[in-house]
Amino acid sequence: MVGALVDDAAGAAQTVHALLERAAQQQPQALYARATESGATLSYAELLHNCHRVGRWLRSQGLQPGDTVSLVMPNGLGTLQLLLGAMASGFCVNPVNLLSQPDQMRYVLQHSDCKLVLASAEWVEKVQAAAPQLRVQQVNPEVLSLPAVDDHAAAAVATTAATTVSTTVAATAAATAATEAPPPPPPLPRPQDLALLMYTSGTTGNPKGVMLTQANLAANARAIAAEHALTPQDRVLGVLPLYHINAFAVTMLAPLASGGSVAMAPRFSAQRFWSQAEENHCTWINVVPTIISFLLEARAQAPAATALHGLRFCRSASAALPPEHLRAFESRFGIGVIETMGLTETVAPSFSNPLDARQRKLGSVGRASGGDARVIDAALQPVPDGTTGEIIISGPHVMRGYYKNDKATAEAFTPDGWLRTGDLGHRDADGFFFVTGRIKELIIKGGENIAPREIDEALLKHPAVLDAAAVGIPDKHYGQEILACVVLREGAVADEAELLRHCEQHLGRYKT
User: Fold this and answer.
1) CA distance 17 to 85
2) What is the reported pTM?
């Protein structure tokens, strides 16, 4: 890759800290992130400095490397720095899905064994209500606003800020700490250390915590940068939420590997999307099929030619992109679409179509990227090209397993260590994979995983419902929408509107 960062002498960076430090050393004044709405910027030198601040501050709160920190925060430069700073300092981060219902959030926060929750102002009370036993610190997602921490006292437990929803006891007075020799720097995180605990819905009601190591994250950041030939001159428009593995890996980590940058938007807006890309001089965009659908529908906000100038490709992931939407997007906007596919369990992309448009295959998720993939039969044996079976994956980006769930971990792997995706499909003679269905009964709505059992169980709580079964059906905006089949108890009465209100109470609007 011409212009890309050069790997260090010891080989490719194996940790988030190594990715960050290398980029900051080679181009300290280069831009890493820019907020699309406020215009605030963050250079690599500032990012490295503030990541060290985050590490010192977390240690001052009594946390030890290896402890888990949960974040309940929207997108922002502060959120970026907290996530990267915690991981670079050897902590494990747990970004919580903001679409979670209180019961789901409570489960994730408790199951993760997090030592501290960092939450934006509008989420502090909700988090405290969901998990009152946890320590909660209010932070600003736009600006890194942490109390200053003296290096001499970084190992001491400090009094928490006024916004902290609990009290900690100061272990050492500042005057005493100032007279002591500074403690030795903490050890750097190791490639095998846990860096990310991200929860994903499965075929059971409770989400599973995917354990991803420093090496997993660094490997896929490098793979994404190589797959798309990213350079320090490239900038991605980041509109997807950072609690989603796609945004976490592709828009936050991949630029660290290439030395590029991200224009961080608070959320997706069809009205602002193209102007954000133009105003921030983005060279590529990272979206999901739902966004492509909305951009095609937003005819009143058709972009000016200048907004599209300089955008060299659009990357689509997280769910299948209907071929007609791909053709329509390329025809209308003149931007080539690279369709990819991955899982939370593989740090997002494991398949990608080539950068060269002439080599892409419509309807295919592409070739294996960042690792290896094959197709097996019910006996777990490889099948010839063209034969339908289950797609399995192997490589340095594959998760360690599911947190506190040995049974699910064992079921997720073949005896020889390949990850079972649950996707049915085939590989052609050129090595391109085509997904034709799913073994797991998972509904993917707008890139979000929804377990049908969650819907079933909510409906069964209604006194009039005898039986229920939810399935995914095609939807032009969301990829899949939820269809529920219901059997009422004899003599019971309940119309669709009543059942919808019932589901909204238990599931929220998105899963209803």
Assistant:
1) 8
2) 0.82
